[in-house]
Write a structure and sequence with these properties.
Layout lengths: L21 H32 L1 H11 L2 H28 L6 H25 L1
Helix pairs in contact: 1-2, 1-3, 1-4, 3-4
């Protein structure tokens, strides 16, 4: 193996000097919301399986999903679903070659955040 001096090489980008941008934060949030949606999906699948199993087991699962904990998880799942959807549309627009300049990309990042909150409030209010 080559004798490489790894001690003098800089760590890049270093967290103390790197300022996260809206595009990187919103892209990371799309990945986080995609993974977090698994929790809400598993709770809903558990609810369906409990409904197919027995009335007693369904009462337990339904009690968890309709409790304050279930309301928080499912409410955040709606927020995550809207954010993930809007982030996917943003990436689709980028894939077509539009909105790649810094100003447009930052506006679309804020649009994803604000849009997902507004759509979540609308969805919860309608349901």
């Amino acid at each position: 193996m080559a004798d490489v001096n790894r001690g003098n090489r800089p760590l890049s980008p270093h967290l103390e000097i790197y300022r996260p941008q809206m595009t990187s934060i919103s892209s990371i949030l799309v990945r986080i919301t995609g993974n977090a949606l698994l929790v809400g999906s598993l709770m809903i699948v558990w609810w369906f399986l409990a409904a197919a199993t027995s009335p007693e087991y369904f009462a337990v699962a339904n009690g968890v999903l309709t409790s304050w904990f279930g309301d928080i998880v499912l409410g955040l799942s709606v927020l995550g679903l809207w954010y993930h959807t809007l982030g996917g549309l943003r990436h689709l627009i980028w894939d077509m070659g539009y909105g790649l300049d810094l100003d447009s990309a930052e506006k679309m990042g804020w649009g994803c955040i604000i849009g997902s909150v507004l759509l979540t409030v609308f969805t919860i209010a309608v349901i």
